[in-house]
Every structure is written in C-alpha cells, then in structure tokens.
Amino acid sequence: MKYLSFDKEQLVNLEYSLNREILSTNHSGGYFSSTIILCNTRKYHGLMVLPIKEFNGENHVLLSNVDETIIQHDHEFNLGIHRYPGIYQPRGHKYIIDFSYEPIPTLTYRVGGVILKKELLFVHNEEQFMIKYTLLDAHSPTKIRIKPFLAFRNVNMLSKANMWANTKYQTCANGVKYKLYTGFPYLHLQTSRKNEFIPSPDWYYNVEYMEEIKRGYDGHEDLFVPGFFELSIKKGESIVLSAATSEQSPTSLLRKFNAEIEKRPKKDSFCSSLKNSAKQFIIQKDKRNEIIAGFPWFGSWGRDSFISLPGLTLCLSDEKSFKAVMETLLHDLKQGLFPNTGNSSSQAFNSVDAPLWFFWTIQQYASYTKDAKTVWTEYGKKLKEVLNGFRNGLPFNIKMHDNCLIWAGEKGYALTWMDAIVHGKPVTPRIGYPVEINALWYNAIMFTIELATANNDKKFVKEWKPIANKVKESFNQTFWLPNEGYLADYVDEEGANSDIRPNQIFAVSLPYSPLSDEQMMSILNIVDHELYTPKGLRTLSPKHPYYKGRYEGDQSTRDSAYHQGTAWPWLLGHYVEAHFKLHGKSAISLAQRIVDSFEEDMNIYGISSVAEVYDGDPPQRPNGCISQAWSVAELIRIIKMIKQYSN
Fold first, then answer.
1. What is the pTM of this model?
2. Which domains, ranges and CATH numbers included, belong to the chain?
C-alpha cells in the first residue's frame, strides 16, 4: 500500500474529492494545481500557471483544464468535470477508479471495457506541462478526443467572454499555438503523435469555483475552448499532450516525460513528503532565488522567507540553497529594512520583524556551520547595518528609545506578522513596544556580540554590550506582568496590553532570552493551557471576548479571525523549542504527538503538504493556503529537534 493512499470507493464522492487538492511546481515560479479529480474549485487552480514577465512577474493561468472524451463504436464518454451554477457537467468523475500521487498525480478511468491512465507532470525549470495517456485495456477500436480550456488571465482575476480575444491559431508540429491577448507568450499545444485538430472556437460560460464563492469573491468564469484534438489509441499505447511556451519536438515528448518522472523525489513517507514540499517553495527566476510564502496565492515575503529558510534548507543539509536565497534577500536590504512583499520593481518595506528574523536565520546558519569566522566575514557587516538602522531610526516610526527597547508603528499600518487589515484598519495594530520585536531585538544584539567576541571585534562589543544589558532590564520592567505570570503582548502610551497571545513564546524559545527560567516556565504554562492545539498555537486565548474560533466566510470575516484565535502551525516550531529548552528530552513525546497529528493530514486538503492555518476551535480544520512555507519548514525543524534530543 502506498504511503499517500486514497479511498477508491470515495473518489466519486464529490465531498471527499473536492476537499483534496494537488500541487506541483516547476521551481521557476510556475505551478499546476487542482482537486484530485481535476475539477477546479478555485480561481487559482489551473494545469499551467506561470509568472509572466511582461505583467510584473505575476502568476497567470494559461491552461485552465483539459477534458478527454473516449470514443468507441460512435459512443462518446466525457471524462471531464466542471461545476456550473447548480450542476456538474460533464460528470466524468464517475468513471474514476483510482488516484495516486506518487511519483506524480495519476488518475485511472474505466469506461466499459476501456481502462485509461492519465498522468500529469510539470517539467522542472521549464514552462512545460504534460499529460501522458496510456490505454491499459480496450476490446475494440478506440479514439481519444482532447479538449483544452484556455484562460490567459491573472490568478487573482477571472476571464470573461469578450470580442477582443485573439481566437485565431497558428499551426506547429503536431499541434497549434494560441495567444489570446497581447503581452502573453504563445501556448503551444502539441501531441506526441499526429492528430486531427478540429477548430471549433467557443466560450464555456459560468464555470463556477465554489471555494471562491465561500471566500466571498466572484466565482464565475468564462473559458475559451479553441477546438479539440482527436486521434486513435491502441491498447498498451501512450500518447503525450504537451502545453508549453515554446515549440517542442513531438517525437521527444514521450522520452522527455519518462525522463522527468525519474527526477521526481519519492513521497513514500511523511519525511519524504515534507522534503518534496519544502523544495517546491524555493524558486529561481531572473537570477533571483526566492521562497514562495504559500501556494497557490502568495508570492515571496521577506518575513516568511527568513522564518522558513532554515527549515527548508539547513535542516535538509541544503546549504547551497540557503546561501542562494540569502544572497537575494541581502541584495534587497535598504537602510536596515528588508522588503516585506513585492518584487524587484515594486517593494513594500513595511515589516518591522523581517530584519530581526534575519539575525535568527543567520544564527541557525552559524549553528549549522559551527564556523563563527566565516559567518562574521560573510554577514557581519549586514548584521551591524540592521542594528544601527534600528538604533538610529527607520520609516514607520521604528526606533530604539532611551530605554533601548524598539518602538514601532504608525496609524493605519500593521508592521508585525499580525498584519490583517479590514476596511482599511489593522485588526491588531500593536503600535508601541511589541513583545516579540523586543525579544528578537535582544536576541539579535546578543548573537551579534557573540560573533564579534569570537572574531575579536572589541569595539563592537564595547559599544553594544551596555545596550544589551539595558534591553534586558527594560524588557522585564516593561513586559512582565507579575500578577498574571506572563508577558504583555505590547505596551503603548496607555500601558500594557494583557491579551494572551503567542507572540510571547519567542521570548522563551530564542537562543538569547532576557527572562529567568522561572518566568519562562510560567509563560509556557499559560501558552500550554490557553493557546496550544496539536495543529498550531491559537493567536488569541479562547477566553477573550474577541476570540474567533473559526476561520471562514468572506475576506473581512476571515481577516477578522486571522489573528484573533486562528491556529498557526508555524508557531509550533518555537513552542516545541521552548519545551526542549526548559524540559530537555522529556519534551520528545509532545513534539512527536505534534508531528503525528500532521501526518494524519497528509492526504487531505493540500496533499503531501501543510496548510497555512487551522481553526482555533476543535476539530481543527485546515484552511488558507494549501501549502505554506513556514508551516512545512517549522515541522521539519521539529523533526530535527526530536532527532537531536533523542541521541
């Protein structure tokens, strides 16, 4: 039995199949994603989604879907499935008898005496998607008709029928090529064998994406179908359909497909599935190495990149990728700040924590290499630059005050990771001294002092040691709530905010903490009882009147719950680290229970990956992005911790 197994009897059950999504990337920013029965439920779904340079590098759906029809004795059996308002048409999923995910997504259909296998593959580091059809069994002459559905639109938008789409095609070897709108590349649709292409251009109206409707968005799209390919297929024969931005050699398609399968890493265990997922987040394009924060709708985020990088690379002994991504991140550093979002031509420097997570990331690298000299040589100058930026003052009112703590924030902005904004207003603005920012600040100074000491930089140590001491003193005076036994979430002009949130866990988990063991034990006890779930730490205690236990509804409703109770898997990495720090080997059982709870979810929601968020209320349901970088990264780091403490 394969590790990632699915109930064959349930595949025809739409409630079962439509809640399981697949993802494959080409490591250059492109991906394909759908449900396991290939019925798209999101506007982000598509068989070929690519970043288009001419459109600011944003992702665009070129090929939305492909329908196949089996023809025998003039009888036609359509294997496709689409949802329209109130109906699914056609209902080809009823012919599915098997689905497997390893090594690549594969569906098997039975129509009478015909058994057809359909394998889907996105070529690594190229803009090419392929489907291989193999006729496993047939007792009479069989034809296959292949009908592509084209979108040519931004992933955040929807295509509508129009008069200006260029519906004319040009021929290429064993196929045709289309470019519906100016600025797009041509999409070459070719088969490995000669075919008959029947042009019958038409719009299919009101294809419905129910997940978008659930999320409060427009969920109806018109897709352009240019016609169809028709060709005979014999028992035991394989035919490949290729969709690519460049013309392919038809005779090499089958060989290329088989060679690409050999490159696919195994997904035959929990760890190998996580490793495969980790690799999908790291992309290389235009000489930049970046981490995609989450599929299918996030791009590269500075904060997420620093938090994810150690787990996605160093924990998998991939130092090369670590350094390549770090080089890109450092290239974007400006006056002590890293861009939070955007691309090289348009960046937003509105994250107060990304520069401080940079120190933690380098700290993990220093621990990995055990080479303080090289780390100081490579990164010492940048570490100093960020420290000086925070001390001297940065945009958004970010500055070290006389008490040596970091104050941050301006009205209308949310600068920490709790950055949801509803109707133009931050849900959790946290203007003032945020607790995790100052925990990260203390850790950053102390780590840099550690490196400077090892490299005999006495001037730096003399300059910053008094600041570190002051931070420790001020941190305790400002944040510690002695009657409650935990830390304020932030402190502003009006005083301490005593909401019980997970941000205080970093003051326990980080290598350098300004707190005593007794304080850390007390904090961990509060987090254990108020915030912990096996799927993530809740972002607010359920006892709080503003707590929201379900992450669902339209965007404003979801954003209102995003950091008001929703549980985040990535926080578990630091939660487990805090337990190991204070309890040693006895924390192994807790860490293993967490790992086991996620292993249970490997064949639901985002197959073979970890979701962005879970409901705060039990039973915790996965939600948000189907595959989130820091969720995967921190789970990998937890597994690494278990191994370290087990030895």
1. 0.95
2. 8-263 (2.70.98), 268-315+531-647 (no CATH), 332-514 (1.50.10.10)
